[in-house]
Amino acid sequence: MEMMSMNRKKMWGGKGWILVMMLMSLSLGTVVVESQLAENFYSSTCPNLEDIVLQSVKTKLSQTAPLTIPIPATLRLFFHDCFVEGCDGSILIASPNMDAEKDAEDNLSLAGDGFDTVIQAKAAVESQCPGVVSCADILAIAARDVVVLAGGPWFNVELGRKDGVISSSDRVPGNLPKPTDDWNTLKLLFAKNNLTTTELVALSGAHTVGFSHCSRFSGRLYSNPTDPSLDPDYAQQLKQECPPNPESDQVVVKLDPTTPDAFDNAYYRNLVAGKGLLTSDQELFSEPSTQDTVTGFANGGSEFFAAFGSAMRSLGRTGVKTGNQGEVRRDCTAFNSALN
Ligand code: HEM
Ligand SMILES: *[C@@H]1O[C@H](CO)[C@@H](O)[C@H](O)[C@H]1NC(C)=O
Ligand SMILES: *[C@@H]1O[C@H](CO)[C@@H](O)[C@H](O)[C@H]1NC(C)=O
């Protein structure tokens, strides 16, 4: 008893409290750092992280070559992950009951190759830095890598996300934009995720790669009259690709009819020409307040690239969990609690 109070006196008396204060402010400093993302988050715990992910993404692409399906699939997966529960890997969870986030009707047929890309990259990362890097961060890096590999811009990815512990199909409706959404609906949904209208326009440029099922836009073709914002020749071509029968539900059409595999600014030139595939695409040009932005991106590939990189970083901050707000999943498709 006496010893203890002696020790306590030693600890708190004299100059001890200065040390305690210093330690406290140090740990406060750590808390502040942990609540933010940082490009060098894994520089000491997994220094080769970005290399490992890039090599793995390249391997995945070589396995599916010459098809480039994993590129749009991975990019879109990142977007859907971020807009539901934040960028926390919740989209990757597989539920035996088919009630996880990815099972929602709004999952809009996310291609399995996007999931595979992340799962393979996670395996490669785990083999070198076990238990350190979140699936949310691996998805964020892979989404950047597929953009670069398709000819798009390099941008630094902020890291330090934790994986979430909730993944539910109930959380999806209302949080993802619909292809039939008008300008106001899109604007509000992106604002809810702290994204500006310029970022909305820039991120939509992701539709320079990948495909859409006919059902997502056929309403524009077979309304009476045909959607007047569609270029008539393009509308005619789409009607041939997507005849008004149930079989065309399985048909997919290129989102960018001009350079479908290249990550470039052709998407914006399409919009100017009335060749936006989805209503949500064409709205960006029909809307007076963003028409100049679209035209600017159509005329300037480097402006689009800079805006896209910056907007992807903003998207990557959406609802992130850091510190003890989440976990580092061992298996991207299951919560750690489900593995024990
Ligand atoms: C602005 C609101 C948006 C809407 C309404 C929208 C809607 C859609 C729809 C309906 C499809 C076709 C899905 C299918 O039928 O298979 C699609 C595909 C795609 N979306 Fe979006 N999207 C939006 C924004 C974004 C953003 C911000 C990104 C990424 C940054 C993105 C990336 C993609 C990609 C890459 C594809 C092609 C997927 C593939 O081929 O596997 N989209 N989107
Ligand atoms: C998307 O959801 C539907 C049910 O709405 C499901 O049949 C399909 O397998 C899901 N897709 C993926 C990739 O999970
Ligand atoms: C938007 O920003 C505010 C203020 O920084 C933040 O509290 C909120 O969590 C952010 N929302 C999302 C979805 O990231």
TrEMBL record:
The keyword Oxidoreductase applies. Heme b binds at H207. Keywords: Calcium, Disulfide bond, Glycoprotein, Heme, Hydrogen peroxide, Iron, Metal-binding, Oxidoreductase, Peroxidase, Secreted, Signal. One of its GO terms (biological process) is hydrogen peroxide catabolic process. One of its GO terms (molecular function) is metal ion binding. One of its GO terms (cellular component) is extracellular region. SUPFAM superfamilies: Heme-dependent peroxidases. The active site is at H80 (proton acceptor). It comes from the Eukaryota. Residues 36-336 form the Plant heme peroxidase family profile domain. The record marks R76 as: Transition state stabilizer. Binds 2 calcium ions per subunit. Binds 1 heme b (iron(II)-protoporphyrin IX) group per subunit. It catalyses: 2 a phenolic donor + H2O2 = 2 a phenolic radical donor + 2 H2O. Pfam families: peroxidase. Residues 1-29 form the signal peptide. Ca(2+) 2 binds at T208, D256, T259, D264. Its cofactor is Ca(2+); heme b. Ca(2+) 1 binds at D81, V84, G86, D88, S90, E101. Transmembrane segments: none annotated. Disulfide bonds join C46-C129, C82-C87, C135-C332, C214-C242. Its EC number is 1.11.1.7. Removal of H(2)O(2), oxidation of toxic reductants, biosynthesis and degradation of lignin, suberization, auxin catabolism, response to environmental stresses such as wounding, pathogen attack and oxidative stress. These functions might be dependent on each isozyme/isoform in each plant tissue. Belongs to the peroxidase family. Ascorbate peroxidase subfamily. This is Peroxidase. It comes from Oldenlandia corymbosa var. corymbosa.
